[in-house]
Amino acid sequence: MLRTLKGFLVFVVLVPTMVSVLTGCWDKLEIEDRALILAMAVDKASPEEQVDEHVTHVKPIKSLQGKMIRLTVQIAVPGRVPLGPGESSGAGEGASNLPVWVVKVFGYTIDDALNTLQQQIADPRTLIHLRVIVVSEEVAKSGLGDVNDYFRRNPQVRRSTWLLISDREAAPFMDVAPPLERVPALYLLAMLQKANDMGKFPADFVGEFWSSESKLGQEGYLPFVSIRQKENILLKGLAYFKDSKMVGHTNALEIGVFMGIMGYNPGGYSPLVEVPDIGVVILNVLRRDTKRQIKMIDGEPHVFLNIKMETSIDEVLSEATIDSESKLKKVEEEFRHTSYDAFENLIRRTQKVNSDIFGFGELIRAHERSYWNEHVKSESDWERLYGELPITTTVKVVVRRIGLTE
Amino acid sequence: MIRAYPVTAIRATAVVISTIIGVGVLSFPKIAAEAADSGAPLVTLAAVGIAFAGLVILAVLVRRYPKENIMQFGGRLIGKRVARCFNLLLILFFATSTGLSLREFGEVVIEVLLPETPIKFTIMVLLLITVISCRCTVIKFSYVHSFYLPSIVAISFVMFFASLKNYDTVNLMPIIGNHPDGFWKGAMSIAALFQSAFVLCLLIPYMRNPNKIVASTIWGVGISGIIFLLIVVSSISTFGAEETKHLKFPTLEAARSATIPDGALERLDGIFIIVWVISVFTTLFSTYYFSVAASKETFGLRDHRLISSFLLPYVFIVSLLPRDVFILTSTGVPIYRFGLLLTIGYPALLLLISTFRGHRRITDASNA
């Protein structure tokens, strides 16, 4: 290439061009120069807080009046986030040495608020490490449309981010700093991931929620959380949605009930049952095996749920001992009844608000194509039909282990 | 003709596969889902069928004239003038398709990788690399393809198996789709992604055993067809057809959600993007190389290297013309459809004439 003059000229022009462009320095951004947002909380702004900073608009927007949100973000402070297990989180004690910085901003939409945030902090904000978004129940009830759109559109946000609904103001979640983890946002994240591993919660990332929301025959659900004793986060239940609006929530054990209907494993909940003649027994659900079938009866779909649970005995609170096969049968029978009631109850409650979080509609779409094509043209058609969908549940319970004592 | 390092059948297969897998893999599940929702894999299968038919016709045709390329024997078959028209159309189509693919590449890069870098530079860099690479001979061309092929095939399979745990088979039912209204339209659009494999007609004069070109094509389209199917199945079963319609690059999102268990590799999308850039390069390399080689034949030049630089401004301008992504797709789709007509129709026409004129496989005659 270098032998001829032409080759030499090509070399002289080409090599510097390639070197300067191929390295991608245009998008260079030092890690210390970014404001890494780890977690975010979305609340409705109270009337006295509604101060418009006019960052994204010159004149007030009529359709948005009085609809301001408060965004509380947790930003990682470079150099203070502990990297290894042995490293202490910065030097000394005190609030100024926290690995994160919590900032409050206001705006009409998420992006408006984030722009206001940018107007207040030096480093460019980045969402590549955003792991948890907490939204207050109040906001969720008026609709998650804005939240969904912004985070879906932004290429920095991963689908494996957790979106949580809190039963109270969401902002305090940004301040929760339990001693188990040095970075508060990572504690929240670890909590959800471990809950998922233990079978306490399904792997319901925001991506899953979006997928369910898009499907015509399924509605989304999200973790419902609360704060206890200032520092504890309580996984309180499931929040269920209809058209991205929250329409209700369950209690904690009903997460297990939901997972039973879905057939998710491992089983992580320990239901308490009062067995006649024996007393209070706490069982631990080890495994669930659920068969979900659709049968057409007289041209109408009918759901048959066949739920089988394998359990072990965790605790017995009574004078009586469980020392025989017949007593074990009694426990199984009693748990079968209570769990049947729980399954039915949760299904009826979601039917009342037409929120098919179980995806029965998807089963019908998948297996009864002609019925679906004829009856369901839009999401609201299925919502209506779900309200009257006949569902038959059968429950089978087996106690596999009783522990080390009779 | 130099037969020192002839192109083997395996290398020809490599050219076909790595050419087919290109910029379109990121977005085609969306096209398939829009065509027939949960029937998307079937749409893709139909597309593979169409592409298969077209490319096998081409392979059978070029096998009859193992010492020439399509520009040379085309003139003999249907007359110099007509053949020249077709050649010009082919050159124009492949040069334009290079430009449009470059733009699509640029759009992805600017959206997910390098938001600050001006799109012109992203496009220019890849175009420059392509232009420089296109100065090589056909034999080197086939070596470049075989060199990159393993990584392209490997990542597709790894991605498929890594995202297995996210799969929900309900999303794939019913197999024919709930509303397969746009089935054939979608199949055509996806089949258009396969047509860059037309470049295989340049290989035949350099092949060690030209008879194997048909087998190479069948293998090549078969393997890339399987990869396309794996990709569409993983997107649809991970997200469901409705969500796939909402995603601009479903394959990329599927790669983002895929993790190798136990946290061995949290983010597969980094590797995926790297390999994707390579696969875009190999596709552009093929389409551009075809335009260059075809121009050389059509204009009766001795050297193709000059044309390689000469075509650059045209391709670059084409890539910058569309104002936004909507115009990019709305102009791209008819162009690719037209290309399909050209890349399948022209060889089919030639094959018909060749059969009519009683040309058989020359090698058969010489063997007999």
TrEMBL record, chain A:
Residue ranges occupied by any Spore germination protein N-terminal domain in the UniProt entry: 27-226
Could you identify this protein by its name?
Spore germination protein KC
Which Gene3D superfamilies does the entry link to?
A: Nutrient germinant receptor protein C, domain 3
Query: Per its UniProt record, what PROSITE patterns does this chain match?
Result: PROKAR_LIPOPROTEIN (PS51257)
PANTHER family, per the entry? SPORE GERMINATION PROTEIN B3 (PTHR35789:SF1)
Xref: InterPro entries? GerAC_N (IPR057336), Spore_GerAC-like (IPR008844), Spore_GerAC-like_C (IPR046953), Spore_GerAC_C_sf (IPR038501)
GO BP annotations of the record are: spore germination
Q: Gene Ontology terms, cellular component aspect?
A: membrane
Membrane protein topology class: Lipid-anchor
Spans traversing the lipid bilayer = none
Alphabetically ordered keywords of this record: Germination, Lipoprotein, Membrane, Palmitate, Signal
Q: Which NCBIfam families match?
A: spore_ger_x_C (TIGR02887)
**Subcellular location, record wording:** Membrane
Give the record's family classification.
Belongs to the GerABKC lipoprotein family.
Q: Which residues form the Spore germination GerAC-like C-terminal domain?
A: 236-403
**Main subcellular location of this protein, as a coarse class:** membrane
Automatic annotation (TrEMBL), chain B:
Which GO terms fall under biological process for this protein?
Answer: spore germination
Pfam families of this UniProt entry? Answer: Spore_permease
GO cellular component terms listed in the entry, alphabetical order: membrane
Highest taxon, organism lineage? Bacteria
Establish whether keyword Transmembrane helix is in the entry: yes
Keyword annotations for this protein, in alphabetical order, are: Germination, Membrane, Transmembrane, Transmembrane helix, Transport
* Segments traversing the membrane: 12-33, 39-62, 82-101, 121-139, 146-164, 184-206, 218-241, 271-294, 306-323, 335-353
Write down the NCBIfam families for this protein, in alphabetical order.
2A0309 (TIGR00912)
Which PANTHER family does UniProt cross-reference here? SPORE GERMINATION PROTEIN A2
What protein name applies here? Answer: Spore germination protein
